Amino acid sequence: MAKAYLSLGSNQSPDIHLPQALAELRAQFGEVIASPTYRTPAEGFDGPDFLNAAAIIETGLDIVALDAWLHALEDAHGRRRDVPRFSSRPLDIDIVFYDDMVFRGPGNLQVPRPELRHAFVLKPLADIAPGFRDPASGKTLAELWAAHPQALAPPPVHSPAP
């Protein structure tokens, strides 16, 4: 079994889509460790604020199969792929880490995810896995968060983990 560290986000009915996505992850993978949910502004485009969270799952799926399963989950929540990549969406789930693998695959699949540099990805992951070491830098998530420019003013917590 592999451990996958996921980033979840939504800025279209996020109070509906994020809890439902976590429930679907639990139904498929069993126990899910979930972070608090944070409200953050849209990055790279004008749009409503996002709610962002992180989750850790254990899976028997390889990284490509897990990515496909997560894309199907996004699609089931109304994610459109015929619009610009950086736009509003009901659900976005990315594999940030898959064990300690460094991987570039089909499409936009890359771990560690380059979005780890953003507070909306790093802060929720650091909350639930502070001692996990980023295989690219060798630093723990707690160390990466402590060095992040937004560490002194983290995004506001929207709610406890669903």
| Gyration radius, rounded | 15 Å
Structural class: alpha+beta
The helix content is 25-40%
The overall pLDDT average reads 92
Can you give a write-up of this model?
The relative contact order is 0.23. This protein is globular. Strand 6 (103-104) and strand 7 form a beta hairpin. It has a single domain (2-159), classed as 7,8-Dihydro-6-hydroxymethylpterin-pyrophosphokinase HPPK (Alpha-Beta Plaits). The mean pLDDT is 92. The protein is built from 4 helices and 8 strands, in the order βαβββαβββααβ. With 162 residues, the protein is an alpha+beta fold. Strands 1, 2, 3, 4, 5 and 8 form a 6-stranded antiparallel β-sheet that branches. Strands 6-7 form a two-stranded antiparallel sheet.
Topology:
Layout: E1 2-10, H1 14-29, E2 33-34, E3 37-40, E4 50-59, H2 63-76, E5 92-98, E6 103-104, E7 110-111, H3 119-128, H4 141-146, E8 157-159
Antiparallel strand pairs: 1-4, 1-5, 2-4, 3-4, 3-8, 6-7
Brief characterization of the structure:
This protein is α+β, with helices and mostly antiparallel strands and 162 residues long. The protein has helices at residues 14-29, 63-76, 119-128, 141-146, and strands at 2-10, 33-34, 37-40, 50-59, 92-98, 103-104, 110-111, 157-159.
